[in-house]
Task: inverse folding
């Protein structure tokens, strides 16, 4: 079996999953909310990109900028108007709210953008790179680079900057961080906005392979959640690692076992893997305080 | 006097920090035993190691509740067992039951329903029998409800049996938690700061209650407490620990005179 | 004489009797439809509402008592529907075997998923069930020998106790099933099973110290939820006489979550009311509204916004509303409203 070609494909889709998963883990670590609506919010701002591109004839980069503004505003709005006011609700209450948000965005998208399916082209329409026997489109290369570079930039920001320190402090212990004078509200606001932009980028990257409909991000959402489960919820890099691993495993399973059931087999394998390593690949075990 | 509980060489560390270091003590039959120490000494950690919420790194927790309770917990032909490694939810079957620092009762349920939770291990009817309210399940429920009423009466709160627990004053909720422990026919009750939040007269009543429980239910009591008045008043023997290490053991008078205990409490003089 | 009347009062106050009365009232609806007072399509909508109430009852046990989310409701319900069709129409084994299969198989699969995911962390159940639901959905599309794929599985009204049913008699059967489910749920939550679930929700640590095996009880709640979903799936199939894969998607599962949240956690009648608000109100009322009635996605926004608003401002759901009204009438603070601070209740 030719290995390089599927590997390159996997890195391309892996980048999409990695960006979505980064959004989920940012929100989880700062707000302690399982962000089930990451895909739907990405779908909404991604649809905004396609809508602007399609209806105004604006260049793609300008449409993406508009989408980023939409994503940031949505992130701010959700955190400010909903999540922040749920401080006293339980974890389950917050999760239910993000489930409710899925439906809100699913219902809003056709109202705002109409029911006609939209199309979004590749950022780089043509051109291939030849690596040995394998081909990689320039667009694919761009997607891989986007995934890797954005993840790398985020890690540098998290590790080296003041705001990164604030985010890590909030992630480690929100109330202590607040007492230390860290503006945790700004931190969560930023986390939600960043998650929104990451979701939008994931949507723009996956859109050319499909039609932009309200459900086109469903697979990304499920896979990103699984990337977090596989990579563990305790680190920022674990889910990114998980995303690429899932993409690679999925491609090889589809090629060698079943083109129809590849993903499903993979999900089951990951669930079984949890029995062996309950906290994921890079998760630490921690003691529950009684 | 036989020992109900023998804690031997208990050690546990959290991320390199030794929370308990080679700690040993024993609690005798029908004894009221106090565990004291300054804040952060590891008292609650001791409790959590005994009740298996934490698994100690080293040491043993020997428990000798008598043949019938050991049989109830599935041990035959032995007179004592090491609790280390027993699943948390099975510990109560051995006749060891605890209360919590922050009174873990269920506010939505009535007092008597709360007490019935203490009798959980006595509900033998299968899940199906309970779902369909088969006669066997109804009889069992009625019998245990009667027993629960008895436990409430023992603590003089049976007149509130059908009231929701959530709206009750703190003193009542504390007594409710105590009543719940009695449902399990305990040989050892572990009380985690039973006097916290009680006023002076309530604390006196508590001392009386602890003695009555010991006398009438024939069990031993192990308590962690900050209220030194209560500890000195009610305990037969006391073990003092500091930074997870054994400090001193003896009668209340001996402990009060022990220079090492005084040293450990320096700066927390209010407590002594 | 007074003894007998006291006895009668006690019987009438027994919750099971109330469920029976509730069921009897519902049984008059087909007559309204056949006499032309109510449209037949309305009867269908109400029948589906009751079916959703059955599913939601199970999820309420899971979510309300154990604080666990299942996103696999649609998948398990669909599995129940296809199994019922397969057993009745392909195997020709009749109504009762069909219902039994719809009860047992989903429960068994659910237990497997629960055992794997619940050992780890409660939230993993949501992710695991989401996946199982996706896998089931894909199976419904692909396994044509079983489901006829996207073309849809056709079925027929069953023969029950030797009688050929029709729309009205299926409605009766749905009501009977709902009343039985309400009774069973009532038994569960008011016995030791329910107390153990309460203890677990209140504090897992304390529940364990009292001898409650937390994993067992989480699995129990999840198994019941799955079983109700399987039953509802079978009833759905027999009432609609067909099943399509696209019915059993994530949004059905989310709608069931909405029914539970809106109706009020841990409330039996509230769950029925929640099913009515989330399913029947968009069907019967919103669609008929001028201007906005035709808006695409309106039912989704309706459910979604209700979920968010209820969790934020009315954690008691509809049950809280009735308690509040009762409190206003009797001038006494209602039990549920006074005992529990909102933050304590919000989907613990």
Result:
């Amino acid at each position: 079996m030719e290995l390089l070609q599927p590997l390159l494909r996997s890195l391309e889709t892996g980048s999409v999953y990695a960006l979505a998963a980064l959004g989920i883990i940012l929100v989880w670590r700062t707000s302690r909310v399982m962000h089930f609506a990451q895909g739907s919010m990405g779908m909404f701002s991604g649809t905004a990109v396609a809508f602007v591109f399609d209806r105004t004839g604006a260049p793609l980069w300008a449409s993406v900028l508009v989408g980023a503004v939409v994503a940031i505003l949505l992130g701010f709005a959700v955190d400010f108007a909903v999540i922040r006011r749920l401080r006293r609700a339980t974890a389950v209450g917050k999760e239910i709210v993000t489930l409710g948000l899925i439906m809100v965005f699913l219902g809003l998208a056709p109202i705002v953008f109409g029911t006609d399916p939209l199309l979004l082209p590749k950022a780089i329409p043509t051109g291939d790179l030849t690596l040995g026997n394998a081909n990689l489109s320039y667009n694919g290369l761009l997607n891989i680079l986007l995934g890797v570079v954005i993840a790398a930039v985020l890690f540098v920001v998290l590790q080296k900057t003041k705001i990164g320190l604030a985010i890590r402090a909030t992630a480690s212990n929100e109330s202590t961080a607040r007492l230390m004078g860290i503006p945790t509200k700004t931190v969560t606001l930023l986390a939600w906005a960043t998650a929104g932009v990451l979701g939008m980028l994931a949507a723009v990257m996956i859109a050319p392979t499909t039609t932009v409909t309200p459900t086109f991000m469903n697979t990304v959402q499920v896979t990103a959640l699984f990337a977090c489960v596989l990579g563990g919820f305790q680190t920022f890099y674990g889910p990114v690692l998980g995303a690429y691993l899932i993409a690679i495993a999925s491609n090889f399973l589809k090629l060698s076992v079943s083109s129809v059931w590849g993903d499903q087999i993979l999900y089951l394998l990951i669930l079984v893997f949890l029995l062996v390593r309950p906290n994921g690949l890079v998760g630490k075990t921690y003691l529950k305080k009684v | 006097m036989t020992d109900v509980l023998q804690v031997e060489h208990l050690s546990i560390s959290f991320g390199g920090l030794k929370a308990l270091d080679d700690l040993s003590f024993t609690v005798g039959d029908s004894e009221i035993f106090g565990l004291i120490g300054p804040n952060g000494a590891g008292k609650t950690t001791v409790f959590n190691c005994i009740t298996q919420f934490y698994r100690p790194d080293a040491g043993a927790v020997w428990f000798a509740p008598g043949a019938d309770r050991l049989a109830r917990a599935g041990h035959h032909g032995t007179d004592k067992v090491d609790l280390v490694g027993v699943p948390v939810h099975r510990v109560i079957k051995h006749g060891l039951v605890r209360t919590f620092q922050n009174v873990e009762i269920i506010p939505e349920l009535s007092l008597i329903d709360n007490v019935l939770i203490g009798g959980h291990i006595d509900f033998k009817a299968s899940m199906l029998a309970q779902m369909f309210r088969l006669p066997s399940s109804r009889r069992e429920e009625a019998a245990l409800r009667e027993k629960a009423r008895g436990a409430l009466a023992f603590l003089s709160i049976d007149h509130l049996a059908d009231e929701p627990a959530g709206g009750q004053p703190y003193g009542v909720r504390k007594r409710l938690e105590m009543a719940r422990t009695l449902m399990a026919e305990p040989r050892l009750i572990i009380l985690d700061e039973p006097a916290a939040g009680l006023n002076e007269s309530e604390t006196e009543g508590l001392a009386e209650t602890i003695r009555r429980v010991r006398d009438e239910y024939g069990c031993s009591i192990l308590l962690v407490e900050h209220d030194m008045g209560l500890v000195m008043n009610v305990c037969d023997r006391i073990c003092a620990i500091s930074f997870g290490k054994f400090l001193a053991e003896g009668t209340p008078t001996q402990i009060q005179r022990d220079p090492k205990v005084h040293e450990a409490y320096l700066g927390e003089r209010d407590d002594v | 004489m007074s003894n007998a009347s006291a006895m009668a009062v006690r019987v009438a106050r027994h919750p099971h009797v109330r469920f029976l009365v509730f069921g009897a009232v519902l049984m008059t609806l087909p007559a309204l439809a056949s006499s032309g007072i109510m449209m037949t399509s309305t009867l269908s909508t109400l029948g589906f509402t009751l079916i959703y109430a059955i599913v939601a009852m199970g999820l309420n046990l899971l979510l309300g008592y154990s604080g666990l989310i299942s996103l696999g409701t649609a998948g398990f319900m669909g599995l129940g529907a296809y199994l019922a069709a397969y057993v009745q129409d392909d195997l020709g084994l009749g109504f009762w075997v069909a219902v039994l299969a719809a009860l047992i198989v989903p429960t068994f699969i659910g237990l497997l998923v629960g055992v794997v995911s619940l050992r780890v962390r409660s939230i993993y159940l949501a992710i695991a069930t989401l996946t199982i639901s996706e896998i089931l959905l894909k199976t419904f599309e692909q396994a044509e020998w079983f489901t006829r794929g996207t073309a849809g599985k056709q079925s027929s009204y069953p023969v029950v106790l030797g009688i050929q049913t029709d729309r009205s008699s299926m409605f009766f059967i749905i009501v009977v099933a709902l009343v039985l489910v309400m009774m069973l749920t009532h038994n569960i939550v008011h016995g030791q099973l329910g107390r153990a679930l309460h203890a677990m929700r209140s504090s897992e640590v304390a529940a364990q110290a009292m001898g409650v095996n937390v994993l067992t009880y989480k699995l129990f709640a999840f198994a019941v939820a799955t079983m109700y979903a399987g039953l509802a799936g079978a009833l759905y199939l027999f009432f609609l006489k067909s099943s399509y894969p696209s019915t059993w998607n994530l949004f059905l599962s989310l709608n069931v979550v909405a029914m539970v949240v809106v109706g009020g956690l841990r409330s039996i009648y509230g769950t029925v009311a929640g099913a009515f608000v989330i399913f029947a109100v968009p069907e019967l009322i919103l669609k008929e509204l001028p201007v906005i009635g035709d808006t695409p996605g309106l039912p989704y926004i309706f459910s979604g916004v209700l979920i968010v608003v209820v969790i934020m401002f009315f954690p008691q759901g509809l049950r809280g509303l009735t308690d509040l009204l009762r409190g206003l009438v009797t001038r006494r603070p209602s039990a549920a409203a006074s005992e529990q601070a909102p933050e304590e209740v919000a989907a613990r």
